Amino acid sequence: MTSTKPSSAAEKPTESAPAAALHVGTSDPRTLILNNLRQSGIFVALVVIVALFAFLTEGLLLSPGNITNIVLQYSYILVLAIGMVIVIIGGHIDLSVGSVVALTGAVSAVVVIRQGQPWWVGVLAAIAVGLAVGAWHGFWVAYVGIPAFIVTLAGMLLFRGLTLRVLDNISLSPFPTEYNQIAAGFLNGLIGGDGYDAFTLLIGALAVAGYMVSCFRTRVARIRYQQPVESFALFVARMVLVGAVVMYFAWQLAHARGLPIVLIILAVLVLVYGLLTRRTVFGRQVYAIGGNLSAAMLSGVKVRTVNFWIFVNMGFLAGVAGVIFSSRSNGAQPGAGNMFELDAIAAAFIGGAAVTGGVGTVVGAMVGGLIMAVMSNGMQLMGVDLSMQWVVKGLVLLVAVAFDVYNKRRAGASR
Amino acid sequence: MDDNILEMRHITKTFPGVAALQDVSLAVRRGEIHAICGENGAGKSTLMKVLSGVYPSGSFDGEILFDGEPVHFRGIRDSEDHGIVIIHQELALVPYLSIAENIFLGNERRGRSGLIDWNRTNADAAALLASVGLQENAVTPVVQLGVGKQQLVEIAKALSKKVRLLILDEPTAALNDIDSAHLLDLMRRLREQGITCIMISHKLNEITAVADSTTVLRDGRTVERLDMGSGEVTQERIIRGMVGRDLDSFYPDRVSTPGDEVLRIEDWSVRHPTQDRLVVDGASLDVRAGEVVGIAGLMGAGRTELAMSVFGRSYGRDVTGRLFMHGREIKARSVAEAIDNGIAYATEDRKRFGLNLIEDIRRNVSSAALRKLARFGWVHDNEEIKVAETSRRDMNIKAPSVMSLVGKLSGGNQQKVVLSKWLFTDPDVLILDEPTRGIDVGAKFEIYTIVNRLVAEGKAVIIISSELPELLGMCDRIYTLSAGRITGVLPVGEATQEKLMELMAKDKEVVG
Q: Same structural domain for residues B223 and B191?
């Protein structure tokens, strides 16, 4: 590919691939790193926190059994965080998701346990209720114009009340085995393995390969379109690092109980929503609305429609989380899902979402959620008192957002 | 010898890249009504901000003498302590507090306990209301008052601060005739009480009616000081002072070859979104392919409101009238429909309404026509980069890459991003609202060149501008708008700044 825009005298006929890559565009590694500080900063924070607790728990944190545990224990928060980060990017908030998790789980329990329907009817019922709740919120926020804070605060009370109503104020349990498998089941032994599960490793390897291919294709395209990309060395380093982390993770899972079904659900959701936010018109419009509502409106974005679907989507994911949580707790309780909204909101903010909207990523929210998860889990392993756990989590949230605000002010000052 | 309450001497205030005020002097005699005139952007507001301490002492050159003493204000609080109170065009009242609470906001009447003494608050407020001739109960929430009465509340608030020099910025811009007359009467009464007034106004008839002297500003400089006492200074005389400058070769040449009509509106009326008045009143205009049409009007004439209501009814309510594209009537009920019909509107405030400052050039350029880059809702992001790259090259946007955040670009480059965004929608008519506001000279020239290129390609362009030389330099025809009505249309060959100014100031007269 010949460059039509020779931009510097450094262009030589014989170039190695890395030099050519660096050469495209004008950005040097330092600006690239600075620009990505917020994103990469979160990964660094996660690594530091994992290392810290691995040290404090004398390796217990990273034991196969515990890693499996973390996944199972926080999967529903991560599912909620996916929806929540989209809500927050759009410039809203959703305080009701804990109650919605309870309500959808309760409906599912009534359908499956009390009425004896098959497990999948329960799943569908829960998701249908989630969608309906989302449409309810979306209607008030988008079409009536009530701030989401109020609408979902009302929803928090409303749907908690309905949960009590549906359950007649008592717990329902247990679910049949199939339903219970959603959150407690594993895929393993499909292709054998000696003392470990080869299937889990295979899936891990496939995931890594897929990630690498996709990154490489993006990079090739960027170069073809003459866009700045990171240096080849940095690119390779990133590939190797991600690959190593995923394979280590898969290795540990393979030595415990195999691949949790929940993890597969979660991975699919992260993949789908990652693409939805970055690559679809809808996703772009969410960013546009959160970034500058007036400008979006004057650019022909149908703001109401987009806002409506943001909340419908949140309801859908709350339904999924409701299924996972009820499955994991093997029943429905009136008090289920209490304070889940706060964990999900915290995950989004720690993951780099901006309080004012317009900024945030699904991956960031996942990392933010994992930071919270590792901290909770690590402190539990250490036997830290619950009171201190809350204090620490609160402080971490505060510092993360303070960092965000500080960054923004600095960016503003540099103009 | 003049007894001057205020003298501002050799004031120079620069912003990065722009000199807003250069060696401006202003002398105001004790107890007079002093008018300050000038086109939009002449430096009137900046001068008042210097005076009131919004721009603190030290951030400008020159000296201010108040009562013969040099003063150095560090903030509004300082100037108010000296009895200088400014009432801005956008009133600064808290809508859901009562009149009395608003009057004493930040200056509360307290009892000995430190708690607010409501009886004294309301009684004092009632006395002040009487002195400005406002017959309202002091406990009435401000939100229930019309704009004219709110203005009086502002004045009462100023009086409560023992005002000695009252500055009114466009006090009658939002008022009807009766309220305006009432306000002018009040100013005369205040003069009798020994309060000096500075009045910034576009309404020359009001200036000739009440002002004792007038200072004219132009391009950040003092042009002249006119003594109005003799009664010989006419509106025409003031206009000459305001516009007296030559059209230089600042505008790139263009051969004008208008083609078929592209957009036409007929009998277009728009109501204010919350108040019961027509902001645009029966306006009709048209623009042809390959033609640049200007809309001139003073602040508050309804220029932006007209444009936004045409652009998918993004302003106002009860929009009536007919809209034609290429001779066919259309209904553009939403912005999306307007875009689909080939209308584009670049707003006057690009930071608030035009751009997503926390996104990059790429995403901003594609944002109004993302569908063109998408299939089944799926954005082809490499094509998006290509589109943005093309714009960056064609428009000469100075940025390291299309991934640069728009918020970090200069005003001129931001405006180029706005233009790129609208050009990507492939419009037939582009409405540019103050396209060169806050942009340095070099970038202005580039924007003009881009406009000329578009017109040569057969697009129709409407330019709304407060800078008359810009309209005279760029347009083929210029419409004038006053109080929501089209008061005239002049081919550029017949238009002069004086003629336009006269039509723009024409109040409540219908021109056939």
A: yes
Mean pLDDT of A110-114: 94
- Would residue A260 count as lying in a domain? no
User: B496-512 as b/e, with b when 16 or more CB fall inside 10 Å?
Assistant: ebeebbbbbbbeeeeee
Residues A350, A205 share a domain:
no
Provide DSSP, A367-385.
HHHHHHHHHHHHHHHHT--
Q: How many CB pairs under 8 A join A and B?
A: 105
- In chain A, the number of structural domains is 2
Mean pLDDT of chain A: 86
> Residues A157, A286: one domain?
yes
Res. B176 pLDDT band, cuts 50 70 90: confident
Write the burial class of residue A415 (CB in 10 Å: 0-12 exposed, 13-18 middle, 19+ buried). Answer: exposed
User: Is residue B48 in a domain?
Assistant: yes
Structure tokens at B69: 């003493």
The nearest alpha carbon in chain B to A358 belongs to B358
Nearest CA in chain B to A287: B359
> Does residue B256 belong to any structural domain of this protein?
no
Calculate mean pLDDT across residues B205-215. 89
Would B238 be classed as within a structural domain?
Answer: yes
pLDDT of the residue at A29: 56
What secondary structure letter does DSSP report for B339? H
Closest-approach residue (CA) in chain B for A299: B368
In chain B, residues with a C-beta closer than 8 Å to the C-beta of A309 are none
Q: Would residue B455 count as lying in a domain?
A: yes
d(CA B12, CA B26): 12
Given an 8 Å threshold on Cβ–Cβ distance, is B421 in contact with A299? yes
- CB-CB: which of B354, B374, B401 is closest to A26? B401
> Mean pLDDT throughout A8-26?
37
Residue A408 pLDDT class (50, 70, 90 cuts) = low
pLDDT for position A414 = 40
Q: Which residue range forms the structural domain that includes residue A234?
A: 201-250
Indicate the residue of B368, B374, B407 with minimum beta-carbon distance to A299.
B368
A172 and A227 belong to one structural domain: no
Q: Would the pLDDT of B90 be above 80?
A: no
Give yes or no: residues B198 and B312 share one domain. Answer: no
Count up the domains in chain B and report the number: 3
Q: Provide the mean pLDDT of chain B.
A: 87
Is A353 in the B-facing interface, judged by CB distances under 8 Å?
Answer: no
Nearest to A281 among B353, B359, B379 (CB): B379
Neighbours of B18 (CB within 10 A): 13
- As a whole number of angstroms, the distance between CA B45 and CA B200 comes to 8
Q: Are residues A391 and A244 in the same domain?
A: no
- Select the residue of B358, B400, B421 nearest A358 (Cβ to Cβ): B358
Distance from CA of A167 to the nearest CA of B (A): 41
pLDDT of residue A110: 95
Of all residues in chain A, the one with the smallest CA distance to B314 is A298
* Chain A residues in contact with B347 (beta carbon < 8 A): 298
Q: Which of residues 171-230 of A touch B (CB under 8 A)?
A: 221-222, 224-228
Distance CA B506, CA B296 (A): 12
Which chain A residues are closer than 8 Å to B361 by Cβ? none
- Strand B317-325 and strand B328-330: the pairing is antiparallel
Taking the complete model, does pTM exceed 0.95, yes or no? no
> Both tokens of residue B453?
């290129």
Same domain assignment for residues A112 and A224: no
In this model, does residue A21 exceed pLDDT 50? Answer: no
Q: Bridge-partner residues for B280, per DSSP?
A: B270
